[in-house]
Design a protein that fits this description.
The protein is an alpha+beta fold. It has one domain: Histidine kinase-like ATPase, C-terminal domain (Heat Shock Protein 90, 2-Layer Sandwich), CATH 3.30.565.10. 33% of the residues lie in helices and 32% in strands. It is built from three helices and five strands, in the order βααββαββ. β4 and β5 form a beta hairpin. The longest helix is centred in the middle third of the chain and has 21 residues. It is globular. The two termini are 13 Å apart. The mean pLDDT is 86. InterPro entries: Anti-sigma-factor_SerPK (IPR050267), HATPase_C_sf (IPR036890), HATPase_dom (IPR003594). It comes from Streptomyces chrestomyceticus. One of its GO terms (molecular function) is ATP binding. This is ATP-binding protein. Keywords: ATP-binding, Kinase, Nucleotide-binding, Serine/threonine-protein kinase, Transferase.
């Protein structure tokens, strides 16, 4: 297999992180050769984090794009906000978060934030297969 690419979730408002994980799981289940269970878990976690960030910080509209490469899986979330994710001190007491972006960066080989043509952005992470 060289590269397989599919947009697994259309842009939608109000779609949940659970919807995105379900779509990502279906994508992963269709890959040959299959990804390891560790790689699948990492992909699902990154999908959840990036979509949750779009829901929380970008107005709730997102598009999920997954691409399978021979040596990795690329997770990309498009949203309408031009604001890039930022590192912040995790909140251990108030429950306001701060754990997601560091987690994505730790699991991924690379991450990128690319401005979108209409003012939004594309946040992507390449994870080991």
């Amino acid at each position: 297999m060289d590269t397989a690419s599919v947009c697994v979730a259309p842009a939608r408002s109000g779609g949940s992180a659970a919807d995105a994980r379900r779509d990502a799981r279906a994508f992963l289940d269709g890959l040959l050769p299959p990804v390891t269970s560790e790689a699948a878990g990492a992909v699902l976690l990154v999908v959840s984090e990036l979509v949750t960030n779009a829901l929380r910080h970008a107005g709730g509209t997102w598009t999920l794009e997954l691409t399978a490469h021979p040596d990795g899986i690329e997770v990309a979330v498009h949203d309408p906000s031009p604001q890039a994710p930022r590192l912040r001190t995790p909140d251990l007491k108030g429950g306001t978060g701060g754990f997601g972006w560091p987690l994505v960066n730790r699991l991924a080989r690379t991450t990128a934030v690319t401005p979108g043509p209409s003012g939004g952005k594309r946040v992507s992470a390449l994870l080991p297969r």
